[in-house]
Every structure is written in C-alpha cells, then in structure tokens.
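note to self — DONT lose this again. spent like an hour looking for the file last time. sequence + predicted structure for the chain T wanted, 239 res
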Amino acid sequence: MGPLRILVVDDEPAIQRLLNTTLSAQGYQVDQALTAGDALKYVRRRAPDIVLLDLGLPDQDGLDTLRELRGFSPVPVVVLTARGAESSKVAALDSGADDYVTKPFGAPELLARIRAALRHRLQQEGTAPEFHSGRLRVDLVRRIVRVEGAEVRLSPREYDMLAQFVMHAGKVLTHRHLLQHVWLDANADPQYLRVYIRQLRQKIEARPDHPELLITEPGVGYRLQVEETPPEPPRPSHG
C-alpha cells in the first residue's frame, strides 16, 4: 500500500494545478486525465483509490463517463461540477457517484469529501478507518499515527508497512506479502524488512528491544499484536 492515489479528471489547467498542489500537500499521489477516454483507460490499468470527476469533459459527458466507469469498477468517485441545480446532483448520485462538490469549491470541503469517500471504501472492504490497540492509534484516512496520544512521524515506507499490519491486525504477514505490498516486489531483499521493522519499533514500541506490538514470527514474518479491550464491569443492580 503506497500513498493513496487520486485520479483527477478535469481539462481545466487551473483546476488541475490547484488540485495537484492541494492534494499533494496532504500526502496523496495525484495523477491526471484530461478526457473521459484517458480516465477510463487509467482506471482499468491502474485502479486508483479515488476519482475526482469533472462533468464537463471535452469528449464525453461526465455522467455518461460515470455510468461507464461503474460498469467495471467500484472505485469511489467524487464529482466536481459547475452544475448547481439539484437535478444535476441527483443525476450524479443516481449514476453512481459517492459524493459531489460544486465549483467553485474550497479546499477544506473537498478534502473532507475525499476522506468521507475513502472511509466508506475502507468500510466496504471490512477495514475500520481507525485502528486502536493499546498505546497505538492509526487513522488510515488521514494517515495519522499516534502513540499514547502523541503524533508519530513516519516515512512513507514506514507508514505503508504499518498500514499493512493494521489492515491485517492480529494476522501473521509473511515476508513475501510485505515485500509484495510495500515494495511491490515479492523477490526484493528481505533485509529491507528487518531494517524497516527495526525503525518502526523505535517509533511505536515502549521498549523496542522487547516489542509488544510488532511481534516476530521466526522464519515466517511478523504480526501486529491486537490488545483486547477488557470487558466492562457489570453494572450494579438496583432493586
């Protein structure tokens, strides 16, 4: 899992520049398509995490593009539209959009809509958008990691590795799985894993030399220990 990839489908250079600057600053990887045809080819080939789709495209109406996209992909789509009429928004939602933002829009609103769409995607996949176990909290939508309430700064590769553990919490992840999903190469040198596991432990473990979160499974891989929440004490009965 690398940086979340957003495909921006809009032929206005000013909008493309604005979105690239805004989204890149939030840690997203931004790719761009100027036409419906290019966007559909991209989604088939690369499977982005979310699509921002303008309705006024030069080669095809955005609603038709959205319907075509929905024929082969469940990717979350936030529509960008200058069509302010309620009927246009209803048509976008009925065609498969997850949300819409009316132009001109502010960056905070757009980012909130993106987070909501990503949160919905994670829930559909059975992954909680926020993970909490003991001293560790991870927000997979905002890409924020906290240990005992304090934010911890991770490198992109460290975060990608931790996100894999969070998405499979309690399960053993093999060396091959981690190399495939973090380095995108199952045959990469396993020494990479040892280096990054050591760095992660330095940042999230109370005692890195005696880890209680990232557990080594000798000869197999690693596992993120899930701390069970203690049951609530019984309530006193009255009467």
